[in-house]
Fold:
Amino acid sequence: MLCWFKQWRISSALDDGRDLPAGLRRHVGRCERCKAFLEGSRNLGIVLRHETETPAPPVQQVTPAPLWRRWAPAAAVIVVIVGLRVWQDSRTLPTSAPAPPPPRLAAPAIPLDEPPPPLPVPQDWASQSLAAIQEASSEPIRRELSGLLPDAEATVSTLVSYLPRFP
Structure:
């Protein structure tokens, strides 16, 4: 009927090392399922005590990794940082914006049946505009890369602090 609760009380009493209360012993005497649970729990406790008494296997001594394996990650990060530093120094940010387009010229009165003549636009203005667009679109990338350098330097200093110091 409430065997799951009785079995929980049996388990709790065995875990705490207490004797079963009188009412629980009477129930175990009448209920076959709870009697089997009590015997199984007691046998499990004997097996677990026996397993904890067996000695642990001997600990194998670990040999340290060769020196080049410990320094290789730090050396790789240092190479990346030096490369970023050189790349950052080689890049120069423009200090001035491209020249604005020339002002529109006043168009002479043209009859409506003729197409209007093309407006004079210097060819240099188009290439300057393209350069300005490229510069504006690459600015967020430059800011991100310039912020990456201090992060990489901090990472290297942390990694180097983990390396063993030799006398």
Remarks:
- Residues 123-162 form the longest helix (40 residues).
